[in-house]
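Case study 2.
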Amino acid sequence: MAHEDAGHYAAKHPGGKIDAAIADEIRNRENGGCVTCAAAHEIAKKQGVSPKIVGMNIDLLEKRINKCQMGLFGYGANKDKKIEVSSAVAQDLKKAITDAMDGGKISCDAAWAVANRLNLTKLEVACACESMEIKVSTCQLGAF
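Prediction:
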């Protein structure tokens, strides 16, 4: 959801219920009404739930997710992207991204897997995707 949707994130989850333990973790990790992507993933691991469940709880609590680990949103005063277009993308990375694509896009989860497999940072993969004009879709937290 976009900036203008602030205060209405819960609408994405009609009938959704807040998990008290997850909500406590979110409140403990939030800063200025925001929870970083990394913190949300840490909460998911600690609570033994999927990142999607933590993302839903963040929405239900009307908190924002920031500092996407792929660099796609939540940086700086304007909450901009952190990614930059790479001047050159290594052939093995191009192939890994292309192989992981589905329907002309690559999911966040698949991009993370590419980064892990090639021993790259998530940001490096996102920058390569940007250079290749490939959209990253299906955020693991449900932010997009």
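The two ends are 7 Å apart (CA to CA).
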